[in-house]
């Protein structure tokens, strides 16, 4: 009888244990990381449909919208939020749906460039850098400002950890410490006398710069004092640059028009030309994403725009694999 009771008690304990394993200790599956469809966002010089959305792979238009601006020189997209630097101010749009985007926030300023990370936006406005808390787009607050009368015509921004790199046409590359959002501080500047910085990108600890008549210039920015470690100058004007995985994609203004030169910068002191591709005239800006290089050219005679897509999955065999034509000049675009 005692043995029977022990067996019964053991069965009850085992049942409770199994119940706990299957139900009491059940863990909810982890939510997958957000996955956003490949999109190209375009702003136009257009009074009607000035914000276009395209499928990145097919290069086909998905939607067009009108937002309250005439000109938007820069744009940045993070997740489902788009940050548009426009002549009306900083506009934040919800991009969760292609067919029905909405304005989520607005900050009155005169922005010419914008980038964002973890709810903090950095904006060039009238040659000042504004640091904005945009976690709640409907209630944007100013956290800090950087202004130095010695530096002006600020253009491109690139955030690398706690360092904000700022490109100035006349003053070169400026580095700011933004670890304290309330008080961005100057770190250093790199410039070339008599030359004008057109564009730059950051690749690991290198600043890769399209420096006009000085060509491509590479500077080590890992320390407190930038050091030039490489250059490539074919004798033509360097207009734009993107860098990734040991390659630099540079548009040079050659005699016949603008051409894309793909350079191996693995060893900055010995840069090698890998490929070249003629693109046309008046290449203005570029973007590199997922094995494709995108570049923009506007025809102001016909008042149209064109974004050219170049397959660079094999940099030594780059080829144009499509384009987007718009019925108005393009002011900015972003690929994700």
Can you describe this structure?
This protein has 336 residues and is mainly beta. The chain has a domain at 34-66 and 300-336. It contains 1 helix and 28 strands. It has one helix at residues 2-24, and strands at 39-44, 51-55, 61-65, 74-78, 81-86, 89-94, 102-107, 111-117, 120-125, 128-133, 141-146, 154-160, 163-168, 172-177, 185-190, 199-203, 206-210, 216-220, 227-232, 237-244, 247-254, 257-264, 272-280, 283-289, 292-299, 304-311, 319-326, 330-335. It has a 4-stranded antiparallel β-sheet, with no helix packed on it. A 4-stranded antiparallel β-sheet has the order 4-5-6-7, with no helix packed on it. A 4-stranded antiparallel β-sheet has the order 8-9-10-11, with no helix packed on it. A hairpin with a 2-residue loop joins strand 4 (74-78) and strand 5. The longest helix has 23 residues, at 2-24. The protein is globular.
Strands, helices and their partners?
Layout (H helix, E strand, L loop, with lengths): L1 H23 L14 E6 L6 E5 L5 E5 L8 E5 L2 E6 L2 E6 L7 E6 L3 E7 L2 E6 L2 E6 L7 E6 L7 E7 L2 E6 L3 E6 L7 E6 L8 E5 L2 E5 L5 E5 L6 E6 L4 E8 L2 E8 L2 E8 L7 E9 L2 E7 L2 E8 L4 E8 L7 E8 L3 E6 L1
Antiparallel strand pairs: 1-2, 1-28, 2-3, 4-5, 5-6, 6-7, 8-9, 9-10, 10-11, 12-13, 13-14, 14-15, 16-17, 17-18, 18-19, 20-21, 21-22, 22-23, 24-25, 25-26, 26-27
